[in-house]
Amino acid sequence: MFGLIGHSTSFQDARRKAMELGYDHIAEGDLDVWCTAPPQLVEHVEVVSPLGKKIEGAYIDSCFVPEMLSRFKTARRKVLNAMELAQKKGINITALGGFTSIIFENFNLLQHKHVRNTTLEWERFTTGNTHTAWVICRQLEINAPLIGLDLSKARVAVVGATGDIGSAVCRWLSQRTGVAELLLVARQQQPLLDLQQELGGGRILGLEKALSEADIVVWVASMPKTLDINSSQIRRPCLMIDGGYPKNLDEKFSGSGVHVLKGGIVEFFEDIGWNMMELAEMENPKRQMFACFAEAMLLEFEDFHTNFSWGRNNITLEKMDFIGQASIKHGFSALSLNSQAQAKVA
Ligand code: NDP
Predict the structure, then answer these.
(1) At 251, which CATH number?
(2) Hey, which of 7, 96, 102 would you mutate to test ligand 1's pocket, going by the most ligand atoms within 8 Å of its Cβ?
(3) Distances in Å between the alpha carbon of 311 and those of 27, 39, 265, 327?
(4) Distance 116 CA to ligand 1 centre (A)
């Protein structure tokens, strides 16, 4: 059985959804009430791959909302409680979606193996970052030519280059895709220098300079909503792959020649009878999902029950190959500019 741990995109949204699901007592509570609310297993689902393999899964809402990010202990408790619930339900492999994997890594939850009388078994969980990184690279390779960009001549800026996903994307683009130049963007210098050395190339640049030079921008950092970008300096055409969470770049860049694609999203080959992706606000929620969620499904399809994506900067090209091949085999495809536009019209 696979599991997905997720959360609503805002407190307001969470209350509305709780009301729809019949959890009135929680829905009416204020943020303090929500801080104490336990995780909920809200849905079971059955999924069949194009090869006929059937798997079962469950969606757990951690009852975390982004407004709780500044409440360190609450955020930590929410993620650990959701993981405990997944394990108690006997789920083999569960993906940590949205902010939950970031909380896990940034708040160093590896130190908190014991939750009440449960000892968490890390091999039951995955961040899903390997599949996310592979999907973002495929999105770049497929969509750049659609807007007239020649990858062998393209400059690609990776914003969040030193992160878990960003560093994997950089490795793939420099060794597999073969783009003309990588522009490496992050705030801290030393990790950037280490990455540059590992890659044997790439130019370290500030965000503004990188944006003015790049034909393609891969965003794999959670950018503040207040970030002010002068879009007149962006090259045309430009492909922007919004791999961060929340996905809010289309609000910032609009206008001819700038193509914003939601990054790290995949589509299953047929409708899945679940409601859970409506919670995640997908354009086509019966088929689309975060690639990190799909990683748990792929590991279940492959009977590969292990914490496949774990820790920081452990994503190898071999792991990306494995999960990428599994993704294609089991009926997933990376969201493209074309499918994104079709879903908007529908
Ligand atoms: P990490 O914390 O490992 O990396 C974040 C990276 O962003 C680091 O390189 C960091 O470097 C950089 N960064 C952070 N803030 C800024 C800033 N203001 N300007 C420039 N660089 C910045 O995160 P992950 O790799 O695990 O995840 C990256 C993003 O991808 C997150 O937003 C996450 O939510 C999202 N994600 C999306 C998924 C999907 O859509 N399917 C699945 C999983 C994750 P520094 O601190 O030095 O600036």
Answers:
(1) 3.40.50.720
(2) 102
(3) 34, 24, 22, 22
(4) 31
Q: pLDDT per residue over 210-236, tens digit each?
A: 999 999 999 999 777 677 788 888 999
47 Ramachandran zone, left/alpha/beta (phi>0; psi -120 to 50): beta
Sheet holding 2-6, edge to edge: 40-48, 54-61, 2-6, 93-96, 125-126
- Say which residues have a Cβ less than 8 Å from residue 25's Cβ, sequence separation at least 6: none
328 in a structural domain: no
Q: How far is the CA of 215 from the centre of ligand 1 (A)?
A: 20
Is the confidence at residue 203, as pLDDT, over 70? yes
Residue indicated by tokens 């370290």: 204
Per-residue confidence band for 277, with pLDDT thresholds at 50, 70 and 90 = confident
Indicate if 88 and 146 belong to the same structural domain. no
In-domain check, residue 273: no
**Ligand 1 centroid from CA 161, angstroms:** 8
| 285 found inside a domain | no
In this structure, are 253 and 188 located in the same domain? Answer: yes
In this predicted structure, the answer to whether residue 308 has a pLDDT above a threshold of 90 is: yes
Instruction: Determine which helix (DSSP H) or strand (DSSP E) holds 254, and give its type and residue range.
Output: none
17 and 44: one domain? yes
Q: Is 39 in the pocket of ligand 1 (CB under 6 A)?
A: no
In which domain, by residue range, is 35 found?
Answer: 2-126
Q: What is the pTM of this model?
A: 0.96
Distance CA 191, CA 312 (A): 12
Q: Is the predicted pLDDT of residue 256 greater than 80, yes or no?
A: no
User: Once rounded to an integer, what is the mean pLDDT over residues 145-172?
Assistant: 97
Q: At what angle do helices 164-172 and 189-199 cross, to 10 degrees?
A: 30
CB of 6 sitting under 6 A from ligand 1: no
Q: List the residue whose alpha carbon is closest to atom 40 of ligand 1.
A: 264
* Minimum CA distance residue for ligand 1 atom 21: 186
Q: 79, 94, 126 — which closes off a domain?
A: 126
288 in any annotated domain:
no
Closest residue CA from atom 10 of ligand 1: 160
Half-sphere exposure of 146 (CA within 13 A, CB side): 15
